[in-house]
Structures are given as C-alpha cells and as structure tokens.
Amino acid sequence: MKRIAARFILYFILISIGYAYLYPLLYMFTTSFMTVEDLVNPTVSWIPSKMTLENFKKSWNVLEASKTLLNSVYLSAIPSILQTLVTALIAYGLSRFKFPLKRLWLFLILATFLIPTQVTIVTKYMLFSRLGIIGNPLVSFLPALTGQGIRSSIFILLYYNFFNMLPKAFDEAAELDGANSFQIFYRIFLPLSIPAIITTFIFSLVWYWNETLLTGMLLGNEIKTLPIALRDFAAKFALMFPAADGSAANRINEGIRMAATIITILPLLITYLVLQRQFVESLERTGITGE
Fold first, then answer.
1. Where does the ABC transmembrane type-1 domain start and stop, copy by copy (predicted)?
2. Could you tell me if 163 and 96 are in contact, meaning their C-beta atoms sit under 8 angstroms apart?
C-alpha cells in the first residue's frame, strides 16, 4: 500500500511539472489554428471548431521567414559549432597544462559569466566598429572563434571538469606512442567528450538563436533573424495588413501571434526532438541538471 501511495505521489508530481511546461506549448499550438470566430467564442477553448492555416500564412509573410529563417540558422549554427570546438580546446589546455596564475585565469573565466551582457555591449560595439565589421556576420563568428561567444565561460568550465575526470594514463599512453598534445586532444579527448560536446552545442544553439540584444545592435537592419522579426511582428503586421473601416478581419489577434511564435521556436523543437536521446544521456554524464 505504501508503494502504491508513493508511486501515485511521484506520478502526480511528474505530471504536474510536465503540465506546467507543456501547457504554454499546447496553448500556442491549438490557438494558432483558430479562426477569429473561435477566438471570440467563449465555448471554444482548446479544440478549434474549424482549423485554419491562414494564421501561419500571414505570420510567415510578416516574419519574412524564407529569409529570416536562413539567417537564424547560419547565425546560430556556425557560432555554436565554433564555440563547441574552441571551448573544448581551451578547457583541454587548462586541464592538462601547468602555467603561472592558472587559478587566476579560471577565476577570470568564471567572472566573465557573472558579468551581465549589458555591461560590455558598448565596448563590444566600439571594438567591432573600429574593426569595421558592424552589420557583418563576423560579429558573431569572431567571438565564438576566440572563445568569447555567448556564455562561453560556462562551456569552458563544463569541459574543464569533464577532462579532469579522464585519467592522465590516457595522455601518457598516447605520448609513448609518439602523439603530440594536439593529437591527444582530437584523437582521444574529443571522442571521449561526446556528452559534453552535445550539451555544449545544444545550449549554445539555443542561446545564439534567441539572442536579440547583441544581434539587433551589432547587425542592425542588415541581417534580420526570426526572433528579431518576432520582436517587431506587431508593428510590421499593422503595416502589411491595415484594418479597413474598423473591420476585425485584418487585425492582429492571438491566433496570429501564436502562429508567429511557433514558426520562431519550431526549428529548436525539431533539433531537440532529433537529439533528445543523446541530449538526455549527455546531461546525465556531465552532471548538468538545468539552468
């Protein structure tokens, strides 16, 4: 009886937590297919009486998704890949080599994570302006390539702790076989750090995808991403679909907003579904439990 009661409590807690996380997604999904009539009908709450794709068509056009989606993919995927590899290399050096003031460097790396982005955004803009790359994708690629990408410090520390768990015997055996430090890194450490790589890549991809402050300031109107287009969605919708004679037909409504939101987050959801198994396993092996 105690086991049944304990299991019931456990399932109740898990279902409650799951519902809290899934409710916003379910609400967005069902609302995005509703017509204006369903939205104003109090008897329709979850299941639309008549499903429509008109909300998605309008949202796709307003977001200019054919262009902004491509921009989002390469402005998030490329820096994420660079950041995943570079932070691993930096962590390998911190883990396996001895040099003066090593603890100070680790402290400074942690300090960069604690400093808010808003504090350094002006100096970043001035630096990139002097380099003449404002409005160029290099403003995202260069920091990732030098280990200064979005929240790179937490990935360096993740790799650092992971590499410290690997025995030094691996290095010694490889050195006896004539391997140099870089060969040890990419032939031994990288294959063994697949869990850390997957964790780093997914978190990095999400953070780069959702970044609007730095992207909007450093790229301006030269390159627009989906999240930035979503930020300006209401104003652009009013310009593209002006309401005529007070009619509600072309006015923005909840269904259109939810459709635009789904278009924006759908690539991330697909990525997670594809890598779900590897991601969960990597979290268990690297010790990450969430933000």
1. 69-275
2. yes
Q: What are phi and psi of 170, to 5 degrees?
A: -60, -45
Residues 20-73: tens digit of each pLDDT? 888 888 888 888 888 888 888 877 777 888 888 888 999 999 998 889 999 999
Q: Which two tokens stand for residue 131?
A: 């380099």
* Side chain identity, residue 82: L
Confidence bin at 88 (pLDDT 50/70/90):
very high
Distance in angstroms (rounded) separating the CA atoms of residues 44 and 42: 5
The yes-or-no verdict on residue 277 having pLDDT over 60 is yes
- Residue 78 pLDDT > 90, yes or no? yes
Q: SS3 breakdown of the chain: % helix, strand, coil, rounded to 5?
A: 75, 0, 25
What is the spatial distance between Cα 153 and Cα 87, in angstroms, rounded to a whole number? 8
Show the tokens assigned to 157.
Answer: 């520390």
Tally the C-alpha atoms within 13 A of residue 111's C-alpha that lie toward its C-beta. 7
**One-letter amino acid of 187:** R
pLDDT at residue 249 above 60?
no
Q: In one letter, which amino acid is 229?
A: A
**Domains contained in the chain, CATH given:** 64-231 (1.10.3720.10)
